[in-house]
Amino acid sequence: MALVNVVLTRSRAIVLGLLGVAAVVATWDVYKALGPEQGVLIGTTRVLPRTTDLAMPHSWEMLQRFGEPVTARIGAPDAFSAVFDASMFSLGLAARGWLIGVVVGLLLALAMSRFRIVESALLPWVVLSQTVPLIAIAPLVRRWGSEIEIGSYVWTSQDSVAVIAAYLAFFPVAVGALRGLKSPDTTHLDLMHALGVGWWRTLLTLRLPASVPFVLPALRLAAASAVIGAVVAEVSIGLKGGLGRMVIDYAVAASGDPAKPWAPIFGAVAIGLLAAGAVGLLGLALRPFRLTGVPR
Amino acid sequence: MTTVADAGPAKDTRARLPIAEVRWSTVLAPLVVGVVAIAAWESVVEAFDIEPFVLPAPSAIWEQVRLHGDSIASGASVTGRNALIGTLLGAVLGVAGAMLAGSFRVVDQMAAPVVAALAVIPIVALAPVLYSMFGAAVDTGRIIVAAVSVTIPVYLNTLRGLRQVRQVHLDLMTACAAKRWQVVRTVTLPTATPYVFTGLRVASSLAVIAALIAEYFGGPIGGLGKSITSSAASSNYPLAWAYVSGAIVLGLLFYIVTLLVELWFSRHLRPT
Amino acid sequence: MTNPLIQPEPLGQPAIQVRGAHRVFGKGRKQVDALSAVDLTVADGEFVSLIGPSGCGKSTLLRLVADLDSPTSGEVLVFGKSARQARLDQEYGIAFQQSGLLPWRTVAGNVELPLKLHGINSEIRRRRVAELLELVGLTDFARSHPDQLSGGMQQRVAIARALAESPRLLLMDEPFGALDEITRERMQNELVRICAETGAAVLFVTHSIPEAVFLSDRVVVMSPRPGRIAGVVDIRADGLAAAHDRSAGVREEEGFFRAVGEVRSLLHGTPETAAVARGVDHR
């Protein structure tokens, strides 16, 4: 009976969710059909968009566009496969950035939880780091590609993109893991202390398991941030092959092919959800630990 | 848990900072780290003779900041204006949406996938299509990008705040035979308020970044983002970095202001 | 206001009448009888405590009286009205274990809250708040916020709030449960004084035997699974003064220990006598 209830609530959520998406799509098309050509202006400021076919393609045109060739050139692939390839490219960079960010974030959190002075010294910078639009320096990083060599390794623009993605991804991990590592009750810590258990064993038996409920949402946030970082960094660095550059390239075609610029945007939505979902699966594996604490 | 009765009010009525308790090391340590980092940067650039396009020295950047202070300030005011309008717009939308979703479960469930999608996508990628919808000669597209970036964290935090209402407060309201809108005004909204501002703090730097990055995708000139790209294009790297530092200061400003507002609104809440 | 020495043939309606109240939580196999066949009458001006182990339904019973919950069957009357009508008419004031103060309001703002909700004008509110804070000894803290007060002071604010509309009935759900023993005894002394000054009837939930005995005219002992009344101890029969008239010294009197023993034996379900009454530290 409980199972039936779960299935019922789940399917209700799914149906309502689909309705929600449908409502957004319907609003788009209804506004396009009924709204004024030049949009709605208050004074000289346009507060609602133009409804011309150029400004707002029909929702179904956006979908149809996926099945059509990218360009009029003979032998051009259809938009779907082009967007798919670009999405995978960006997802790959985001994954590299995520991995770097997670490792850096976890190490920082460990150091901060181990030494109080490290926490005092670094935590404010970690917090401030995210108010600094590092992405802003991406155009400057453009020249780094192939100009820097570390030993025999030649720095590429892809590395730059991954580093920028990592810069966005490490923050939630560092903060979340720090909170998690510090989350065990004083009672438990006192118990470990009384039992004469050292820092490492306490870390393994108490702090790490206790941090899981804090780290999992942090990892998911980091995944979303890494995707955002990768796509935006591609744009500002000008790296070809990914969604970021595709957004720019396709935007140029907007005047003759208004549905085209939307294709890479859907690609970005897809990989964002995919990345967050994949990390969510990781959470399933660590489920037993989720009972050890309640993230607030 | 309880102190001896009548011990008088706690003397310490300072707003609580999120960073442990304030000791000299909590203030000094990060400053030392900052100074050391800048000194190291300066000496590394000098010692290894690093080209400005890779990394200019802090002194070179500071030189440019002094020379081009006016233009940095005007760029910051353009970008800052977009970010500010976007923040206010996004905050209103986020709070209003959360109040709807908090009162009607149907709205909450319908909005869930849309919110989830908006939370994981690079919203600035919308900038090009927004430029064609609203016109590329105006800042509307940038403001919308900033607003959407702000809406999501504010919405999520507010919704969470609306659900933090304590049972004992609701019981009290029932016992006082309070009307529905009285419950909302006396208990629900004040409970959620600190959460609204937490969302706003998280969102504030996003707004600056979004407004800035949206400039990379086109639109009118004048903002910091455009200035960064154009000085980089003309190989004036120290100047580009000077604009970047303008962006950093702008981001910090937004963050600090929203942080102070948040601390003010949560000053009477015990840390949990 | 009332003369506590002459115990009431109460004029008019009793403060609380509960008849045959049942409260069932859950459904099917998870069904729990929180209250079963409870009858209870509290006279006007009388102080009655509900005591019992966790899950005996004492808080549930109080919530039925407060109309924060409804009985599955049975009847609850407050001053002769249905519990719901009594709540809408603000016939009672209530205090909870967690003081339930609104952290963003000042002490004065919390105390005046019920008055404000019912549209009393600000001048009257100001005067009433001053009176109430005087009564609970917190005049100097009117402009403080709850987070600046100790636990005992917060509870006193909550009591002042419960008294705001001069109710003739106070409902208190373990109001001193979270306080340390020293603070707790002091608060009990003050509650006796406050009750004497206001003459209100009190329904008081606690799990402390000495607290129940010290404060009450009658102690209602409850037992769990299903929650029901196991017995009632009339403290006045043990030779103690009426509840409104006690002083701290009562805790040293022989009648006090005797009453504690009676309550304890009812709680443990064995007919022991005063022999058990030496240690009063059972909580």
Detailed description of the structure:
The complex is a heterotrimer of chains A (296), B (272) and C (283). Chain A is mainly α and 296 residues long. Chain A has helices at residues 2-34, 59-65, 79-114, 116-129, 138-141, 157-181, 186-194, 199-237, 243-252, 262-285, and strands spanning 40-42, 45-48, 149-150, 153-154. Chain A folds into two domains: 2-56; 79-292, MetI-like fold (Orthogonal Bundle). In chain A, 68% of the residues lie in helices and 4% in strands. Chain A has a two-stranded antiparallel ribbon with strand order 1-2. Chain A has a two-stranded antiparallel sheet with strand order 3-4. In chain A, α3 packs across α10 (262-285) and α8 (199-237) packs antiparallel against α10. Chain B has one domain (70-265): MetI-like fold. Chain B is an all-alpha fold and 272 residues long. Chain B is built from ten helices and no strands. Chain B has helices spanning 24-47, 58-67, 69-103, 105-120, 127-134, 140-162, 167-175, 180-216, 224-233, 237-265. Chain C has 283 residues and is of the alpha/beta class. Chain C has a domain at 16-91 and 167-273: Rossmann fold. A six-stranded mixed beta sheet of chain C has the order 6-7-8-3-9-10, with helices on both faces. Chain C has a four-stranded antiparallel beta sheet with strand order 2-1-4-5. The radius of gyration of chain C is 19 Å and the shape is globular. The relative contact order of chain C is 0.17. Mean pLDDT of chain C is 83; it is low at 1-10 and 271-283. Classes of the chains: A mainly alpha (296), B mainly alpha (272), C alpha/beta (283). At the B-C interface, α7 and α8 of B face α4, α6 and α7 of C.
